[in-house]
Write a sequence for this structure.
C-alpha cells in the first residue's frame, strides 16, 4: 500500500466514522426502538390469540420476513410516489427498518412470552390482578429477560442493515464511503476501512449485550 493510499485512508476515516455516529447509529437505534413497540404489540396479539388480529399479525410477519429488506426499501421509496405518496430518504429508512425488524422481533417476543409458565399468570389472576396488570408485572418482565439476547442480536444486525439505506440515498457511513470511492477511485482499501468501522460498532454492541446479560442473570438469581 503506497503512501497516497494511506493518506487517503487517514483522511477518510473521520468522515466515515462521523457518518456512522451521526447517521448510522441514530438510524439503527430509532428504528429499533420503534420496532420493539411493533414487536411487543404483535407478540401480545398472538399471545392473547385474538382471532382476526392474530391472522393480521401472522400475515404481516409472513410478508415482511418473506421479502428482502432492500426490495422493501425500494417499494416504499420509489414505488409509493406512483400512488402519490412521497417520503424523504431518512424517514423512509426508519419506517422500513422498523417494520422489517419489528416482524423478526415479534417472533422473538412471542416465543419469550410463551416461555413464561402459565401458572404464574394464573397466580396473578388469583390475587385479583387484571389482564394488563398480569402482563405488565409478571409476564412481560420475564419475557423481556428471555428475549434480551436475541433482541440484542437483532440490533447488531440492524446496524449492519442500515448500509442498505445507501440505495435510497441516505448518507450513512457506507454511502459516505461510496462517495469517497467515486471521487478517488480507490476501492478495496476504503471498503475494508468501512467494514472495520462496522466491526467496531458491532463489537461494542456485543460487549454491551454481554454486560446486560450478566446484569439480568444477577437480578434473576437475586429474585430466585
Amino acid at each position: 500500500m503506497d503512501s497516497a493510499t494511506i493518506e487517503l485512508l487517514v483522511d477518510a476515516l473521520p468522515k466515515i466514522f462521523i457518518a456512522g455516529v451521526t447517521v448510522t447509529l441514530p438510524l439503527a437505534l430509532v428504528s429499533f426502538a420503534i420496532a420493539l413497540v411493533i414487536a411487543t404489540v404483535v407478540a401480545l396479539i398472538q399471545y392473547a390469540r385474538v382471532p382476526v388480529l392474530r391472522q393480521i399479525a401472522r400475515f404481516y410477519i409472513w410478508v415482511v420476513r418473506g421479502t428482502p429488506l432492500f426490495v422493501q426499501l425500494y417499494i416504499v421509496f420509489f414505488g409509493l410516489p406512483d400512488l402519490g405518496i412521497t417520503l424523504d430518504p431518512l424517514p423512509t429508512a426508519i419506517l422500513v427498518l422498523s417494520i422489517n425488524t419489528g416482524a423478526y422481533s415479534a417472533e422473538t417476543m412471542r416465543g419469550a412470552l410463551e416461555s413464561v409458565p402459565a401458572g404464574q399468570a394464573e397466580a396473578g389472576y388469583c390475587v385479583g390482578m387484571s389482564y394488563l396488570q398480569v402482563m405488565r408485572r409478571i409476564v412481560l418482565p420475564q419475557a423481556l429477560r428471555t428475549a434480551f439476547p436475541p433482541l440484542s442480536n437483532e440490533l447488531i444486525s440492524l446496524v449492519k442493515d442500515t448500509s442498505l439505506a445507501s440505495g435510497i440515498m441516505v448518507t450513512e457511513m457506507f454511502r459516505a464511503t461510496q462517495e469517497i470511492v467515486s471521487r478517488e477511485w480507490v476501492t478495496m482499501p476504503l471498503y475494508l476501512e468501512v467494514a472495520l468501522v462496522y466491526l467496531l460498532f458491532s463489537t461494542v454492541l456485543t460487549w454491551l449485550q454481554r454486560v446486560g446479560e450478566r446484569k439480568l442473570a444477577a437480578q434473576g438469581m437475586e429474585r430466585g
